[in-house]
Every structure is written in C-alpha cells, then in structure tokens.
C-alpha cells in the first residue's frame, strides 16, 4: 500500500492555496498528477464535499485564457455572491452579517466577493464632503476592517473555495501607489492581494462556462438586461447596487442578468458624495444553485429592516 506523501488536511490546504491546479499540487507533494486527481476524488467521496478547482487565466498557460479570468466547474452545489461591501471600521452592516450567516447555513461550494470590498476613501479621486475628510478611515483602518470581515467568512464556511473579483474601488489601493511610488512595484504589501492570502483574486470567474461573475460591465438602469442580451451568458455583476434579476430568453434558451446589490449600508457615510439624493439601491446578495451542471433560477436575499433580511419567503434576524 502506498503511503500518501502528505496528510489529508495538508493536501486540502495545498489544493486551496494553488487554486486546485493538479500540476502545482503534484509539484508541492512530490507525486504525479494522476495521483492528485485520484486523491481529490477519494477526499470528496469521504467528506461529501467537493474540492473546487479554480484555474487562472494567464498568457503563458497551454490553454490560454484572458489574464485575470478564473474558471471552475460546479455540477451540483451553491455559490454565494456578495458585492460592494465598502467595508469601513465599526459594526458590520445587516447585509454583511447576513452574508456571514448564510455562508455558514448554506455551506456553499464557492464564496465570491464581487468587487469593491475595499472602499479606499482617503485615496479616492472624489472630494470629501465639507467636513467628511476627518472622519474618513485611513487605508490601514480599512484593511483591518476588511480582514476582520473576511476572517469571519472563512470561519463560517471553511470548506468553500474563495474568490475576490476586482472592483474599481479595490483598484484604488494599487493605483495610488503606482502613481506615486512606481519604484516599489513587486514589493510585498504593495498589492491588495498580499493582505488576503486565503483568497484567490481575478477579474472574473466563469462557472461551468455559462455563468460569468465579474464586478461590472454595462452601466445604467438597463445594465443587467444588456449584460445578458449582449453577453450571451448569465452574467452576475455588482457596482450599481441595484439587487435584481432580469431574464432573457431566445432560441438558445434562458439566461439572466443579475445585480447582486450591496453589502454596505445604502445610506452609509461612504456615499456622502451622493449629496443626500434618493438612491435606487438595495442591500443584499445573490445565491446561485447548480443541479446536474445547470443553474437554477437565481435567488436574492434582501435587507428589509435593521437586522432583518428576507430570503426564500422568510425573514431572518441577523
């Protein structure tokens, strides 16, 4: 009998750290790729939960994908998608607490934070309000608040794969540094992902090749409609904070444009630039369920009061 080169727990850790690349796991464990695939199947069978493979797009790979694209297959399972958390120090919002709650209760295969988790208030190109500059958190404070939220998610759903798709606010972190100190490119800590090693970063993630999750594409009131019609696939975005599902059906079948809303407080201080205008925004997140490789009708969880969120016909206290 062949003795495994690493323990089951170490194998799972290496698998997640490499994004499920059989070649990378084989190199790290000193085994063959065929052995890696066999052990993955054994662990999945024994534990009753899948080990998700997240393949990164890169120009130097044999199978060339656009840079920043991640891909995965989920025949059966749940994907939890939250967006636009704009995390600031202090108490978590109702939507953020609910997202953690359902990360534990639904046991998702994959958790996606679909951009703008980091707000970047003090590195924004937008001017602060008349007295807002003093109360805006510093970058360090925002990073620590983001890390606290993300740590809670990891603890709530330790078996899930974790992806962070870049948003325009997230880009502020590196854009400011690149503009002011380009000589420090590549120094550890100067990239946002350096501060979140348990998460896989990308511009988009494609699930089963027919569902795309990315921070943004079209803008305006008909954005998700245009995404579905022009993209030819189900497309899940954030950015606009609108929390809605729009179907489109043609000769190819049905697909959906999904806006996963915001995990922030729609009236939070982060948005003082809105000048107290009415906002067609809704706090909440999206839940995708896959069965036999097919995505079922997308579901939304929506904040309906302070500490309350509605989902599948019930109101939950969080």
Strand content: 15-25%
Q: What is the CATH architecture term of the largest domain?
A: 4-Layer Sandwich
Give the structural class: alpha/beta
Q: Can you tell me the number of structural domains?
A: 2
**Rg computed from alpha carbons, rounded to a whole number of angstroms:** 20 Å
**Count of alpha/pi helices:** 7
The helix/strand series, from N terminus to C terminus, equals: HHHEEEHEHEHEEEHEEEEEEEE
CATH-derived topology of the largest domain: Purple Acid Phosphatase, chain A, domain 2
Largest sheet: 9 strands, mixed
User: Mean of residue pLDDT?
Assistant: 89
Give the overall shape, derived from the CA principal axes. globular
CATH superfamily of the largest domain: Metallo-dependent phosphatases
CATH secondary-structure class of the largest domain:
Alpha Beta
The strand count comes to 16
The low-pLDDT segments are 58-62
Considering DSSP H and I runs of 4 or more, what fraction of the residues is helical? Answer: 25-40%
Distance between the termini: 50 Å
In summary, what is this structure?
With 318 residues, the protein is an alpha/beta fold. The protein has helices spanning 8-17, 22-29, 33-47, 94-105, 139-156, 171-180, 223-231; strands spanning 55-56, 69-72, 77-82, 110-113, 161-165, 200-202, 204-207, 211-214, 234-237, 244-250, 253-259, 284-291, 294-295, 299-305, 308-311, 314-317. Strands 3, 4, 5, 6, 12, 13, 14, 15 and 16 form a 9-stranded mixed β-sheet that branches. Strands 1-2-7-8-9-11-10 form a 7-stranded mixed β-sheet, with helices on one face.
């Amino acid at each position: 009998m062949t003795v495994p080169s690493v323990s089951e727990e170490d194998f799972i850790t290496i698998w997640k750290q490499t994004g499920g690349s059989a070649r990378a796991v084989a190199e790290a464990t000193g085994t063959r790729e065929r052995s890696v695939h066999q052990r993955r199947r054994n662990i999945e069978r024994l534990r009753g939960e899948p080990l998700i493979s997240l393949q990164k797009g890169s120009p130097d790979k044999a199978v060339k994908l656009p840079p920043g694209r991640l891909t995965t297959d989920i025949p059966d399972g749940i994907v939890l998608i939250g967006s636009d958390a704009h995390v600031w120090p202090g108490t978590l919002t109702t939507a953020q607490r609910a997202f953690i709650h359902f990360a534990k209760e639904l046991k998702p295969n994959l958790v996606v934070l679909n951009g703008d988790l980091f707000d970047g208030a003090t590195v924004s190109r937008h001017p602060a309000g008349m007295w807002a500059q003093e109360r805006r958190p510093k970058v360090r404070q925002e990073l620590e608040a983001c890390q606290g939220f993300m740590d809670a998610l990891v603890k709530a759903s330790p078996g899930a794969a974790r992806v962070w798709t870049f948003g325009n606010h997230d880009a502020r972190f590196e854009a400011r540094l690149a503009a002011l100190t380009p000589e420090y490119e590549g120094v550890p800590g100067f990239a946002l992902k350096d501060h979140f090693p348990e998460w896989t970063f990308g511009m988009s993630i494609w699930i089963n090749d027919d569902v795309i999750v990315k921070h943004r594409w079209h803008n305006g009131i008909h954005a998700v409609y245009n995404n579905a019609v022009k993209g030819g696939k189900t497309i899940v975005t954030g950015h606009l904070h609108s929390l809605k599902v729009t179907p489109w059906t043609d000769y190819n079948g049905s697909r959906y444009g999904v806006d996963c809303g915001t995990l922030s407080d729609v009236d939070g201080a982060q948005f003082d630039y809105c000048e107290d205008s009415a906002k067609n925004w809704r706090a909440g997140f999206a839940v995708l369920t896959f069965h036999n490789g097919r995505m079922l009708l997308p579901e939304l969880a929506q904040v309906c009061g302070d500490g309350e969120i509605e989902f599948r016909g019930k109101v939950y206290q969080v």
